[in-house]
Specification:
It is built from 7 helices and 6 strands, in the order H-H-H-E-E-E-H-E-H-E-H-E-H. The chain is α/β, with parallel strands linked by helices and about 230 residues long. Among the domains are: about 40 residues, no CATH class; about 35 residues, no CATH class; about 60 residues, no CATH class. The longest helix is centred in the last third of the chain and has 15 residues.
Length: about 230
């Protein structure tokens, strides 16, 4: 299930005439709803699936982007293609790749393990539509992490497993608040002062931009010059 109420999480409910079946929609319901949006608005034919962007370069002469895409369909050879566009919007997010923790001894662990993004129903039992994890009834389960995914999956694991251990790097606790405002807090509080001091330091913006440029270079993305951006009609 999602960790946000369905009425907020699912877009275009009025346009689609859809009423979520639960307060917190399941993954299978979210996917079916997303597919229905794509069908209604004819998005399937305009999408390039199973592909990655290899490079994106600004062409100063033609004032457009040249993007090289590699299609990686499962079981087939890679196909490289190029296209040009006036605008490029990066909306892939930061959670598209599963990240496994680097734990000493994990490589010699003899039990079964998997990432929540690659859930193994053949081992736990159940399915996306019916997540009854009956095969865990006699199992001791260790769960690493206490993020949003834990909110979604831990209740089910606690219900179906024999024993459940949750491993967290550190316990969460409120940090002291800055005296003034408090200091440009990242998430303003409409009720009271935010209980966090993890705010942007004075040089934070400059460091963020430097890191952003470094990531773009690693990804093979060349941005238009500042002079070009200033001349843009936008």
């Amino acid at each position: 299930m999602c960790d946000t109420e369905s009425y907020i999480y699912l877009p275009l409910l009025e346009e689609m005439g859809y009423m979520p079946t639960r307060k917190y929609a399941s993954g299978s319901e979210i996917r079916k709803y997303a597919e229905s949006i794509a069908t209604k608005y004819g998005l399937h034919s305009r999408a390039q699936f199973q592909s990655v962007v290899r490079t994106a370069h600004w062409q100063q002469a033609t004032k457009e982007w040249k993007i090289v895409i590699v299609e990686k369909a499962k079981g087939e050879s890679e196909v490289e293609m190029a296209l040009c566009a006036d605008y490029v919007v990066f909306a892939s997010g930061v959670l598209s790749n599963a990240k496994l923790p680097q734990v000493d001894g994990f490589d010699v662990f003899e039990g079964h393990s998997f990432h929540t993004a690659r859930w193994d129903y053949t081992y736990t039992g159940g399915s996306p539509e019916q997540p009854d994890l009956a095969k865990l009834n006699d199992k001791r389960v260790a769960y690493i992490g206490t993020g949003a995914t834990a909110i979604q999956s831990v209740p089910k694991l606690a219900k179906w497993s024999k024993e459940l251990y949750i491993v967290s790097h550190s316990c969460g606790k409120p940090q002291k608040c800055y005296a003034e405002l408090p200091k440009f807090q990242r998430t303003p509080s409409a009720v009271d002062r935010a209980t966090t001091a993890t705010l942007i330091p004075p040089d934070g913006r400059a460091r963020w931009r430097q890191a952003k440029v470094g990531r773009e270079r690693e990804a093979g993305i060349s941005m238009p010059s500042r002079a070009t951006r200033l001349r843009s009609p936008l």
